[in-house]
Amino acid sequence: MAESGASSARGALGGAHAFALFTVFVWGFTFVSTKVLLEDFAPIEVLFGRFTIGLVALCILRPHILRLQKRSHEWLFIAAGITGVTLYYLMENVALTFANASVVGVLVAVSPLSTTAIAFALGRERISARFVAGLIVALAGVALVCLGGGSATFSIPGVVLALGAALMWSLYSTLVKRISDLGYETIASTKRTFVWGILFMIPLLPLMGAQPDVSRLADPLDAANLLFLGLAASAGCFATWGIAVSRLGAAKTSIYIYLVPVITAAASAAILGEPITLAMAAGIVLTIAGLALSDERLSVASIRGRRSDG
User: Fold this and answer.
1) How far is CA 80 from CA 51, 64, 122, 194, 243, in A?
2) Distance between CA atoms of 229 and 223, rounded to whole angstroms?
3) Which candidate, 48, 15, 29, 36, places its Cα nearest to that of 197?
4) Which residues are 125's β-sheet partners?
C-alpha cells in the first residue's frame, strides 16, 4: 500500500510538471499572437475578447457554479481577477505596443523573483545569498536583452509595464495557491476569477479605444489568433496552471516561466521576423541562469513549519 501510495504521488507530481510545461509552451507563443492582433485591435479589445471566449469555453466544459465556503473568500477571487486577468494582461498587451515580443517575454519571466519576494514578506521563504546572486545575474541579463537590440526593440514605458505585469503575475500565483489550499476546484475557481477580471475590464473598454466593429474578425488570421488566445492560452492554460500551482506550489511552478523567453524569442524571430542579436541571446541566457540560480535555494530555505495557510 505504501509503495502504491508513493507511486500515485509521483504520478500526480509528474502530471503537475507536465501541465506546467504545456502551459508555458503555449504562453510562449501568446506574445507573438497578441502582437499580431495589436495591428488591428486595441490592447483592451484583445484582452476582453480572449477572456470572454475563455469564460464561455470553461462554462461549457464545467457548468458547475462554485459555492463559497465563506463570504470573505470572495475577496481572494476578486484579487485574483484584478491581478492575474485584468492588470497582468492589460500591462502585457500595452507593453507589446512599445516593445518587441521577445523583450516583453524576457521581462515578464522575472516574475519568480517577485514571487519569492512576496513569499519572503509573508514569512514563507528566506532570502539567501544565492538568491541575491541570482537576482544580480538575472537583472544583468534583462539589461542586455533590453539594450542589446537597440532602441527599436524597446522603450522605457514598455519595460516598466512588462515588469509591472511580472509583479501582477506573482501576486496572482500566490492567490491561486491560497485558493487551492482552501479546497476549491480548479476549473470552477478559474471561471470565478475570469468573471471578476472581465467585470473590471468593462469600464476600461470605452476609455481605451474599444470599437464595436466585429467585422475585423472576418480576417482568418485575426480570428485564429483570438481563438488561440481564448481557448488554448486562457481557458486551457489557466486551468492547467492552476492544477500545477495547487500540486507544486506557486514558487516551484513559477520556475517553468524560465522557458517562456526562449520560446517567445524563437517564435517572434520565426513568425514576426524580430531581430535576435548576439547581445540579446546572451541576455536571455543570463536571465534564465540567474533565475535558476536564485531558485536553487527552495529545497533548503523554505520555512517548513509555516505551511498551515488555512
Assistant:
1) 14, 19, 17, 9, 15
2) 10
3) 48
4) 302
